[in-house]
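Input sequence (282 aa), recorded before submission:
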Amino acid sequence: MSDEFKNTATRRRRVPARQAGGDSADPSASSLYVQSVEKAMKVLTAFDGTKRQLSLSEIASLTGFDMSATQRFTYTLSALGYLLKDADSRKYELSPRLLDFTYHYLTSNDLVSRATPYLQQLGSETEEATNLTVLDDTDIVFVLRIVSRNVFNAHVITGSRLPAYCTAPGLAILATFDDGDIDDILSRSNLVPYTASTVYQPRKIKERIAQIRKQGYAHTEDEYFVSDISTAAAITNARGRGIGAVNIAVARSRWKADRDERRVADLVISTASAISTRRRVE
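Predicted structure, token format:
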């Protein structure tokens, strides 16, 4: 497995300290919070893709549970069909049953179903990879990806997550938020330079967000992947808040700087606007 794939598909999901625009109270302090469910989820999220199989002791180390608790949780999850145990290595791995959740999410999600025909049309028109992403805590998650014969990065798949602060879809969504929510998300983000071109300083990020608000789209070049150029526009709800983003990703070798940014920007803006409008009228 390449390092590039690990960076995109295996960014560890963190429990958010606060959802943007939401309640800042610690949910685990509520009497409704079930600790055993949290622990079971910790076992599942220990399998973050860096290793296909984990031993009982490795799971215990990653979760912080003692061996007895780890054994009980892995046994239960195996009995339910969500973990598989290799008879030879005695190690555990995720089972295909977990894909049921992905399937049910994709087939029941209103945004995905509404955006699909628009992204298919956009991909056919441009012959480039088109994506639908949503914000999850400080990351964007790819929930729909229409690939083309010119796809630049085959390692980015449905479910991959990338940091919002240095990706065009993430910046497009952030630009629709109020400044307080942006500050909160940036304060909880791991702001690091992934390439020599990454903009990761909070002040500069907020300056570019101000520019995105004026022009209506976000544009990044070489900021997470070298030679990757991405242009995105936010899909908004009736209040104008970003609930997702449409983006087109193009390899630098195919990019014509003197004409492509405006052309691609117009396409993602019109597509995102059509999806946003359709959501409001239906």
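Checked by second reader. Residues 109-281 form a domain with the Beta-Lactamase fold (CATH 3.30.450.40).
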